[in-house]
Structures are given as structure tokens and as C-alpha cells.
């Protein structure tokens, strides 16, 4: 398998009943497999919370696309803030941070500075 992409970084997140993991493709490097310590059930729960949040804030779904009703997305109350905060925290802790931790400066040097700032 050739090292792809020719420039930059591509992150592919796989969510499957049996496992959740990531494939990181960085220019000039071999593909990197990153296992995630999160279940399909937990991801589906977060998806449901996010869906409910979007519906409460007047975003409707047509098939797989979302569109705004009324032109803007606002946070209506503290309960909505709590819901979206929970989802974002879970995404950071269980998906994004493990990816950043696996991508050290030798894998993708251009991420090194951002990683230092974010952790």
C-alpha cells in the first residue's frame, strides 16, 4: 500500500458493532491503526443525544442531510447546553484525544504544535 495522501493527513473513523477504531493516513508515512476504547452502543447513545439536541433547536433531518429552520442554530436553555457539552466531552475523551495521542511528532510533524497547545 502506498503512503497516501500526497500531502496532509486523512483520518478515517470506523464505528462497527464489533469494534471502533481509526485509520490515520499521513503524507509520506505508513497507515496507522488506532484502536478506540469506546463501544458502538455508546456512540449510538451520543448520536441520539446529538440528534435530540438538533431537533430541539429547530434543525430537521431529511434522509442524511440536516437543514436549519429559521436560519440559525441557538442554544435554547441550560439543558441543551448540558446535552451538547456531554457529547463534545465524550467525543474529545474517547475519540479525538486518543487520535492526537497516537499521532506523535514522528508520524505527523505538523500536528506536533497543535497537540502541545491542546493537551
Question: Which features would summarize this protein structure in a list?
Answer:
single chain, 119 residues, alpha+beta, three-stranded antiparallel beta sheet, two-stranded antiparallel ribbon, 3 helices, elongated
In short:
41% of the residues lie in helices and 22% in strands. The chain is of the alpha+beta class and 119 residues long.
Figure out the total of helices: 3
Rg calculated over all Cα atoms: 17 Å
Largest pleated sheet = 3 strands, antiparallel
- Mean of pLDDT: 76
| SSE topology string | EEEHEEHH
Written overview of the protein:
With 119 residues, the chain is of the alpha+beta class. It has one domain. The protein has three helices and five strands; from the N terminus they run βββαββαα. The strands form two sheets. It has a three-stranded antiparallel beta sheet with strand order 1-2-3, with helices on one face. It has a two-stranded antiparallel sheet with strand order 4-5. The model has no long low-confidence stretch (mean pLDDT 76).
Helices and strands, with pairings:
Blueprint: E1 9-15, E2 20-26, E3 32-35, H1 40-56, E4 59-62, E5 65-68, H2 78-102, H3 112-118
Antiparallel strand pairs: 1-2, 2-3, 4-5
Helix pairs in contact: 1-2
Amino acid at each position: 500500500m502506498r503512503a497516501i495522501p500526497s500531502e496532509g493527513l486523512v483520518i478515517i473513523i470506523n464505528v462497527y458493532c464489533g469494534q471502533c477504531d481509526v485509520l490515520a493516513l499521513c503524507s509520506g508515512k505508513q497507515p496507522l491503526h488506532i484502536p478506540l476504547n469506546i463501544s458502538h452502543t455508546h456512540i449510538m447513545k451520543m448520536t441520539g443525544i446529538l440528534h435530540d439536541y438538533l431537533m430541539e433547536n429547530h434543525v430537521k433531518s431529511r434522509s442524511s442531510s440536516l437543514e436549519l429552520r429559521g436560519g440559525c442554530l441557538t442554544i435554547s436553555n441550560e439543558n441543551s447546553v448540558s446535552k451538547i457539552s456531554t457529547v463534545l466531552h465524550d467525543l474529545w475523551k474517547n475519540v479525538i484525544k486518543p487520535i492526537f495521542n497516537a499521532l506523535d511528532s514522528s508520524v505527523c510533524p505538523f500536528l506536533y504544535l497543535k497537540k502541545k497547545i491542546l493537551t
